[in-house]
Amino acid sequence: MITVQSIRDAAARIGPHRIRTPLVFSPTFSEMTGARVYLKLETLQKAGSFKIRGATNRILCNLDIAKAHGVVAASAGNHAQGVAVAAHRAGVAATIVMPVWASGAKQAATKGYGAQIVLAGQTLEESVDHARALAREGMLFIHPYDDEEVIAGQGTIGLEILEDLPDVDRIIVPVGGGGLIAGIAIAVRGQRPSCRVTGVQAAACPSVYEALRTGTALCTLAQPTLADGIRVTQAGSLTIPIIRDHVDPVILVEEDEIADAMLALIERKKVIAEGAGAAPLAALLSGRIPVEPGSGVVLVISGGNIDSPLLERVIRRALVLRGRILACSVLLEDRPGALAGLLSLIAQEQGNILDIHHEPAAPGIPIGYVRIRLEIETRGKDHVAAILSSLKKAGYATEPS
User: What is the residue range of 275's domain?
Assistant: First the structure.
């Protein structure tokens, strides 16, 4: 059974092996919501996420087995790196089973921490099954979320939040399999019962949400999501009862909301967070979580491990959503001066051309015309409307691109 005391014991055990991450006040997000908003920056943790906490606690609680036979884990990325770092520090061998779709960057990072990688499984659950099979050879199995020692390790975040902000009123936590929020909820609600702990899942993979709604932790169909760190298709048997007893109903966020939150963290706090880490801010800014004016709200920014190419795509997507990039196409006569006239009009409206592409022979284009695809940097949605209005008045027909 996981208790506040077992989480305190975990905190003492893993203390020398983890970073005590800062709790940072955000004036911007506070002004936007009316609450006092703080960020618990596990992006600054060793291996870039909270996962090292639970992995370290599990290894140190079973060090004799780990030293004799090594450890094995299954993960899409962050748990893999957390286990690899924890095992390296403990001087034990680590084997990590990753789903076949795990990002190349996270595979490389895990190898860089000294672990052996095995790619197996289309889902995390299939990877877990493969890891369990390997564990039958004697290795210590470290589950990513459904393990009491792992949950206790993750719960040390809750202790740190209470130490830094004793009057916290709400903590918003990303949810995959539920280990992180289960540990935090036990640590916090056991000492400050009035504090509400709220979970956030990606709507693309609502496993815990559906388990709470239906009362059954069945395997949930998952869609691709920016929040790959919480793309877990089946909730844990240990975590669901804890979440049901100690957590507010879990809410869902959409992909565009996650992308916008990732950009907001970069621009407002200079924090790079992966999709899962940005999910709490996405939920708060969406307005789906009611907060009292002046109340203390903590967002657990759980990790910052994101591939650079994906980060670039996310930023572009969020800028388009905010109206700071206008992506459109124009059908233009293929004659001298036609393109210059189009670009001159955009310049008059103070639009900055980021990219331009000619399509002279695409299907559906009449003879004598060319399609011009444009990306235009703008000041916002009002500026986009002004540019489109000027183009329409000048006789240019535009389509979203």
Answer: 4-49+152-317
pLDDT over 90 at 216, yes or no: no
Last residue of a domain, one of 287, 317, 347: 317
Half-sphere exposure of 246 (CA within 13 A, CB side): 27
Q: Choose among 298, 294, 28: nearest CA to 162.
A: 298
Cβ pair 329, 362 in contact under 8 A: no
Phi and psi, residue 335, nearest 5°: -145, 155
- CA 110, 116, 117: angle at the middle one, nearest 5? 70
**pTM of structure:** 0.90
On whether both 117 and 32 belong to a single domain, the answer is no
Looking up residue 228, the CATH number of its domain turns out to be 3.40.50.1100
Is residue 27 domain-shared with residue 57, that is, in the same domain?
Answer: no
* pLDDT score of 301: 98
Angle among Cα 62, 63, 69 to the nearest 5 degrees reads 95
As to burial, measured by CB atoms within 10 angstroms (0-12 exposed, 13-18 middle, 19+ buried), residue 146 is buried
- Which strands, in side-by-side order, build the sheet including 369-377? 352-359, 369-377, 325-333, 398-400
Model confidence pLDDT, tens digit, residues 257-274: 999 999 999 999 999 999
Q: Considering only CA atoms, which of 96, 79, 85 is closest in space to residue 140?
A: 96
